[in-house]
Amino acid sequence: MIREFQRAAAIATLVSVLVSCASERGAVIREVMETTESSVDGVIAAGTLLTATEVKRIPARKPRAMLAIASPLVLDRAIDMSVLEGIGYAGWRDERGDGLHDVKRIRISFLARLPEGGLDRQSGMLFLPVPRSGESAKLTWIVFLRWTEHLRDEVPSREGGSERSLMEAAAALGYAVWAPDYAGAGDSAGAQEYCVPESMAASALDGLAAARSYLADGHRSRYAETGRLAVLGYSQGGLAAMSTLRALSDGSIPVPGLRLAAGYALGAPLDLLIGVPFREEGGSVVARPDYSVLLAMGWARAYPDSIKLEEILLPGVIANVVPLFDGLRDGDELCKLIAEAVGKKTDEVLDADLYRPEYLSALGTAPDTVPLYAAQDEYRLDRWTPPADYPIVIAASPDDEIVPFGNSAGAYGWIKEKNPAADVSLVRLASDSHGRAGLEGLLYALVDIDKREREE
User: Fold this and answer.
1) Residue 106, strand partner residues
2) How buried is 199 (Cβ within 10 angstroms: 0-12 exposed, 13-18 middle, 19+ buried)?
3) 333: left (phi > 0), else alpha (psi -120 to 50), else beta?
4) 41, 106, 206, 380: most buried, per Cβ within 10 A?
5) Cα-flanking dihedrals φ and ψ of residue 121, to 5°?
6) How far apart are CA 292 and CA 434, in angstroms?
7) CA distances (Å), 198 to each of 99, 111, 239, 398, in order?
8) Torsion of CA 348, 353, 355, 360, to 10 degrees
9) What are the helix and strand counts (H, E) for the chain?
10) How many CB atoms lie within 10 A of CB 447?
């Protein structure tokens, strides 16, 4: 979620781990069809597979090279390795670097449910190990949820995003990896439904249903399922992971035939940054106006009947800033252009430059009367209690400068207080920034998933 991610991408490239939230209902351009929740007797519904297109095959040597270069010797120059060393990363990497599979990538287009009803055409990428000659593969599923990206095409289905090589590596290890783009990216038109839990869970699980349809339709001879499922993500992806876990546990989006093996909410903003997000502590300066505006846009797109952009943002911001979010500008450019639009320097944008005074006043005096605040407060995931049979790892860095560690520690404390029998652990990542901890956390999750799988 941040400028630090650009540094993280550079780090990830260095180690070759990377080799290689619109306004009212009428203003959102999207494909919406009112229909039933499941596909019955040919009815088009959430989880329907629309298209599946195989794209470039990845030879095993690429993920093998990634794991080889992502050695403790190289990684130690970029991230603190102590936590990874504690779970035996080096030995795991050396052992699992051999016997990797080629990976085929399938671009998936599918229908996902929208929070206030209807369907949205969305997309993502399915990564599959290629079985060796004469063999078939029995697959455990990994839902891999990406962090924040402004650029529409820097997403899995467009072969972009700085986590892609880790997705490929997971598939090369023998897993079926589903990576959705989210609403408002890839094939999905309109504003990103940024950090909207219901929306991200639908992208994850309706997309998973479509990916499973692909395997079931003409690929049974080469692929079968173990019945196990892992869910992971970092930053916005960590919030998406926790929202997906909740949807799994309450059955709001069914996944017949699969059970949760483990879930990983990494560096996640589980309190949803309610109120005026990204405001600097003790002041009214908005450190990340791009994410502040996107959050309002995304929630207004997701809940157009209750959340109105014109009740949140100033008219000038709606006229001059909202159109900038066209998926063609990165965060740095957006921050610069937003500052110019409100007549400020990039580090001097105030909450009063973006938000209506009535909105700011209501937040200070009666926040529960503000629809955006009330919705985010209802869905905050640091107050969700998973069932005892859901193994969940919450991980974050105490030195995270973007998403406070209290998000993760608070969620862990809440869960253990409400359900002492919950299978939840809190991992303190050792790296000294949000971006570096992203690489560390994702590697931790990959190793932990694989170790759990091999114990089955």
Assistant:
1) 54, 126
2) buried
3) alpha
4) 206
5) -75, 120
6) 18
7) 38, 15, 11, 28
8) 70
9) 16, 9
10) 18
Q: What is the residue type of 329?
A: R
Longest dimension (CA), the chain: 68
Specify whether the backbone of 439 is left (phi greater than 0), alpha (psi in -120 to 50) or beta.
Answer: alpha
Which residue in 171, 177, 115 sits closest to 143, CA to CA?
Answer: 177
In one letter, which amino acid is 3? Answer: R
- Which part of the chain is CATH 3.40.50.1820? 3-271+386-455
Q: Is 115 left (phi over 0), alpha (psi -120 to 50) or beta?
A: alpha
pLDDT digits (tens, 9 = 90+) for 373-388: 999 999 999 999 999 9
- So what's the architecture of 3-271+386-455 in CATH? 3-Layer(aba) Sandwich (3.40)
The CB-based long-range contact list for 335-340 (8 Å cut-off, 24+ gap) reads: 335/288, 335/289, 335/290, 338/289, 338/290, 338/293, 339/289
User: What's at 312, amino acid-wise?
Assistant: I
Q: Which helix (H) or strand (E) holds 91?
A: helix 89-96
CB-based contacts of 218: which residues, under 8 Å, 6+ apart?
A: none
Instruction: For residues 84 and 413, give the distance between their C-alpha atoms in angstroms, rounded to a whole number.
Output: 24
Predicted confidence (pLDDT) per residue in 29-79, tens digit? 233 333 333 333 445 799 999 999 999 899 999 999 998 888 888 888 889
CA 383 – CA 379 distance, rounded (Å): 9
| Cβ neighbours, 10 Å, residue 170 | 26
Q: Please, are residues 137 and 111 in contact by the beta-carbon 8 Å criterion?
A: no
Q: Which residue has the tokens 């962090």?
A: 147
